[in-house]
């Protein structure tokens, strides 16, 4: 059995420090390279073999969704859900009593405003996940599928899809905000957030930001009927709106109950 020191060292190894959003989230954004993340092509990375195509073929034969079908489900869930749990790690320069090296995970509103797999946030300067991201923490967003409450599947969250998106926080440019009408999109999903979203009269210093997704871990439900594995990022990126419209989700379509 691994010691607590070894486990802690492994966890902290994933918290590579790279400069991200400026601490106070000013209008001008500091550029940075993306943080260190798992390489799907590295056969030495646990859970991310270069033989994904072989795994996919085997699972197709078993009757479970394929890798691409799982990616479609995940993207559809991202488009329908409105909040997830954003996890970061307090960095070495964290102000007391925030303990450096300790993870923190908090629920956060998001919206699928860019329709490319990168969720949009109203990044508030006093919010620990965005403070940690600005200081260099890697970021992960856990999203769960919540079916219609009337569905029998709603009583068993363990049977339902969920996934984790890993990546880094990046501010949207003024041009992107205008072109994508980000404020309208976000407020349509979260009308109660009007007092604190970026803009004149906001009660907080905030700015529009995206999670640039670099890795996707999919947990589709019980392993005998769903995939549980890393999804290739190109599968995540290449999902189309037509595919999402045609894809059923557990508890959303009568045939899936």
Short synopsis of the structure:
The protein is an alpha+beta fold. Helices cover 26% and strands 21% of the residues. Strands 1, 2, 3, 4, 5, 6 and 7 form a 7-stranded antiparallel sheet that branches.
What does this structure look like?
The chain has about 260 residues and is of the alpha+beta class. Helices cover about 25% and strands about 20% of the residues. The chain contains eight helices and seven strands. It has helices at about 5-15, 50-60, 65-80, 130-135, 175-180, 180-190, 235, 240-245, and strands at about 85-90, 105-110, 120-125, 140-145, 160-170, 205-220, 230. Strands 1, 2, 3, 4, 5, 6 and 7 form a seven-stranded antiparallel β-sheet that branches. Strand 6 (about 205-220) and strand 7 form a beta hairpin. It starts with a helix and ends in an 11-residue tail after the last helix. The model is unreliable at about 1-60 (pLDDT under 50).
The percent of residues in helical segments reads 25-40%
User: Strand fraction band?
Assistant: 15-25%
Number of strands: 7
- In the predicted model, the low-confidence regions spanning at least 5 consecutive residues are 1-59
Instruction: Tell me the Rg in angstroms.
Output: 19 Å
Please render the helix and strand layout as text.
Layout: H1 4-13, H2 52-62, H3 67-80, E1 83-89, E2 103-109, E3 120-124, H4 128-135, E4 139-144, E5 162-171, H5 174-179, H6 182-189, E6 206-219, E7 228-231, H7 233-237, H8 241-246
Antiparallel strand pairs: 1-2, 1-4, 3-6, 4-5, 5-6, 6-7
């Amino acid at each position: 059995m691994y010691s607590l020191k070894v486990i802690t060292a492994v966890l902290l190894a994933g918290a590579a420090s790279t400069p991200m959003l400026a601490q106070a989230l000013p209008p001008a954004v500091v550029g940075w390279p993306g943080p260190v993340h798992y390489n799907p092509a590295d056969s030495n990375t646990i859970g991310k073999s270069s033989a994904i195509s072989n795994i996919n073929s085997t699972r197709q034969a078993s009757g479970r969704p394929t890798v691409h079908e799982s990616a479609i489900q995940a993207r559809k869930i991202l488009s329908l859900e409105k909040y997830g749990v954003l996890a970061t790690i307090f960095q070495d320069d964290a102000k007391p009593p925030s303990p450096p090296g300790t993870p923190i995970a908090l629920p956060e509103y998001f919206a699928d405003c860019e329709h490319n797999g990168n969720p949009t946030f109203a990044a508030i300067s006093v919010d620990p996940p965005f403070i940690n991201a600005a200081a260099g923490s890697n970021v992960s967003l856990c999203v769960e599928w919540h079916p219609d409450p009337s569905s029998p599947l709603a009583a068993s969250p363990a049977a339902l899809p969920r996934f984790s998106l890993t990546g880094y926080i990046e501010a949207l440019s003024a041009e992107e905000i205008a072109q994508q009408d980000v404020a309208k999109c976000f407020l349509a999903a979260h009308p109660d957030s009007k007092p604190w979203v970026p803009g004149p009269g906001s009660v907080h210093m905030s700015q529009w930001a995206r999670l640039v997704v670099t890795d996707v871990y999919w947990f589709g439900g019980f392993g005998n009927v769903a995939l549980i594995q890393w999804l290739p990022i190109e599968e995540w990126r290449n999902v189309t709106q037509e595919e999402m419209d045609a894809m059923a989700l557990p508890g959303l379509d009568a045939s899936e109950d």
